[in-house]
Amino acid sequence: MAEYSQILGRLFWRKRRPLSTSTMAAPLTALADRIKAFGRELGFQRIGIAGVELSDAERHLEDWLRAGFHGTMGYMARHGRKRSRPAELVPGTLTVISVGMDYLPEPCQVARKRLEQPGIAFISRYALGRDYHKLLRHRLQRLAERIAAEIGPYGYRVFSDSAPVLEKALAAKAGLGWIGKHTNLIDRHAGSFFFLGEIYTDLPLPVDRPTPSHCGTCTACLDLCPTGAIVAPYRLDARRCISYLTIELHGPIPEELRAALGNRIYGCDDCQLVCPWNRYARLTEESDFLPRHGLDAASLVELFSWDEATFLRKTEGSAIRRIGYLRWLRNIAVALGNAPTEPTVLAALRARAGHPAELVREHVAWALRRHGGA
């Protein structure tokens, strides 16, 4: 682990004079300011520094797990408390650099209109472009290397939804926003449509102040959630969440929840789209996050016609590919069951009625029953 004297010596080596303990705070603050400037130059719209004490978040996570709200996401319970104790995941971690990058590719009102078109597939806006994981990790690595160029070698590790990390809790401590009642992070100046990433460091940097909550008495996200997954403010039952049902769940979607999915075939943005703070949401500056293959306005019938080779080709480099072809068909079959009864819809479903996979056949049969058993 780098010592204060080493860090300060690297920062101020040109002065060639010893630095006392009383002079440490100012150089470390200057380093933190430089890091934030580097981050903004690399395309992060928000950047802050958090400490590693997450006891409140740890209790919240353990309560959530005890309630079984994680469903089949067993990975949320693995790794013990490394998720909430950064220094146990990466020994020597003293502070965490937290960053945010905007991803919204279109105005919120355009996304809301897609939800009102039952024949059009709705895909969560974060997944319309290229998978963000590699882009964020690459930028974070560049930031980490930029810091090393400034001060010399130090201990660090970069993350972007790639390890047991409490990203939202750390971002909240770093002042990037507050965790809203829908459990997403909200920036009062930019809404909630942004990705998070972290650099765990052994640098004793000054930490930023958390942002106080500005949700007030608003319950818009709880009231609108199609499946009632937000069971209480700041408490999400993932087993009912459309994002979980369409992405994380491997088996059949519970029949009692299928109608509520509407035309949502990958994820759900409803709680964000209705949030008043997203009137300030900013459109992305990254071309990689813009829609590809017309997925922002593709018809359900068109997407249901894709064979597996087409699915793999058109989801290359996309987060969508992680669900695989069978769950892709499963999700679209449900959406077609919720679509208006039209010849093209019925023909598409009938064409898949004898699919080799039981997962697909069962959801197609349900969809056909929704159309009067046609």
TrEMBL record:
User: Which PANTHER family does the UniProt entry name for this protein?
Assistant: EPOXYQUEUOSINE REDUCTASE (PTHR30002)
Identify the residues that the record assigns to the 4Fe-4S ferredoxin-type domain, covering every copy.
203-235
Q: Which InterPro entries match?
A: 4Fe4S_Fe-S-bd (IPR017896), 4Fe4S_Fe_S_CS (IPR017900), QueG (IPR004453), QueG_DUF1730 (IPR013542)
Q: Which residues bind [4Fe-4S] cluster 1?
A: C215, C218, C221, C275
Residues holding cob(II)alamin? R83, D161, L185, L196, S243, C268, D269
| MF-aspect GO terms | epoxyqueuosine reductase activity
Name the needed cofactors: [4Fe-4S] cluster; cob(II)alamin
Report the active site residues: D161 (proton donor)
Top-level taxonomic group: Bacteria
**What is this protein called in UniProt?**
Epoxyqueuosine reductase
Q: Where in the cell is it found?
A: Cytoplasm
Q: Which residues bind [4Fe-4S] cluster 2?
A: C225, C241, C268, C271
UniProt keyword annotation of Manganese present: no
UniProt keywords (A-Z) are: 4Fe-4S, Cobalamin, Cobalt, Cytoplasm, Iron, Iron-sulfur, Metal-binding, Oxidoreductase, Queuosine biosynthesis, tRNA processing
Main EC class the enzyme belongs to: oxidoreductase
